Amino acid sequence: MSSVETLAQQVATGARTGDPCIVVVFGAAGDLTKRKLFPAIYNLLRGDLLSANFAILGVDREEATVESFRNKIAAEIKQFATVEIEPDKWDWIAQRIHYLPGDFTAPESYKALADRLPKIDEKHGTQGNFMFYLATPPRFFSPIARQLGTAGLTREDGNAWRRIVIEKPFGRDLASAAALNQELQSVMSETQIFRIDHYLGKETVQNIIVFRFANGIFEPVWNNTWIDNVQITVAESVGVEGRGGYYDRAGALRDMVQNHMFQLLALTAMEPPARFAADAIRDRKKEVHLSIRPFTRQDVLDNVVRGQYAAGTVAGRSVAAYRAEPSVAADSVTETFVALKMFIDNQRWSGVPFYLRTGKALPARVSEIAIQFKQSPYSVLPEEYRANARPSSLVLRIQPDEGIFLHFAAKEPGVLPKLDMVGMDFCYSRYFGKEASSGYETLLYDCMIGDPMLFTRADNLEKCWSIVEPVIGTWEELKGERLYPYPAGTWGPDKADELIRRDGRQWRRLTA
Ligand code: BG6
């Protein structure tokens, strides 16, 4: 999705590829590079979306040669590509792969980089456009940005652009995120910074805006007159999968809520943007975050539930307790589950609770946004026929069965006017076919054309941190108190059910 007005036509006619550029990947030997970046680059090539003037320069500590790096990637792409690799297409990419061994913190690495880039640029005609992709652990974000700045590599001369792409986690609280923003902005301008939230790259997430604003029928009921509550769930069946070292310092609130879930919330709740353009949309999202009712300490105690998985069974597989995961402290008080209730204090949403829940080692992998409508004000049908009737709901299903479902009451066939709940399904893959994607294609492409719509702006990111600050603070003070265990393979601790039950509501029952 892009804010460039005629992009759709240009892409359709093959006229608009990404700009000529070199993608410089810091962390080229890492997981993200092989799992996401190369498969995405391959898919962009398949879609004719890469410029013919394109190159990749991998930077990492490993003392590899260009040949050994190319061979490694060529072997890995077979495993991680989302489609069958065609040899001639892969050769095209392979010829454009370069490698530079170097320590991310050593100034010599940046001298070598500054020396190497013009040569690659000349060879491939990339017009001085460099995209620095930081696929590294977060402790390197600041040092890399600073050194790029010192080496003069972030300076944009003439038409040549210099962009930096930063993976998450972006800070671990408001202060560290603000410090990182300052550091980045001291060597480049905000327009050069592309902060990734990979949820924004998901097709279904992008569709929230289209669904809401390209259809005349939903917006009139998208408010507190018609909507009773909104439930956003991001459930994962996996545990921490070898990322215990990172996760134990993060936890579900930092890992999922502050970023991905707050983005889903903003897209669901925002006002129509003035234009289909990056800042118009990002301004609207920010307004939502500004209107979120701040959590007091008492709100945290009453309306935020945290849990940690104990041993259990997920889909027939035994799962060890979180505390037994590698690199997790045996007495860890890190939450692997969060459920919370929040309010958006504005005209549209006043009084409508937003319930959010996310967790690891849950029974299923399901992400969805459920809009629960109010009960119809009056039902002509007698009570005895309405036993199975529920208020209608509209579900935007993010993954895995991407689609949109409307649940509503209908009369069961038969003599008696008995009601039951039925559903209308829109399923992406059935309608459009299954598009193979790593989820990074749009993000890389948008960075190549300079469209920041799907990236997080500094002020917005800091606002999201400030919303969770009271939660972080209260939990730190509570230490292990009020951290509720739940067996792996269940929908979180009972307290999460209580949170919503006491409002006379319940979580949607989800299945895989
Ligand atoms: C990442 C988190 O940002 O998102 C992971 O760090 C999580 O812990 C992942 O598993 C989920 O992403 P997806 O695309 O699989 O829903």
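^ 6-O-phosphono-beta-D-glucopyranose complex. The pocket of 6-O-phosphono-beta-D-glucopyranose is lined by residues 168, 236, 255 (CB under 6 Å). Residues 458-478 form the longest helix (21 residues).
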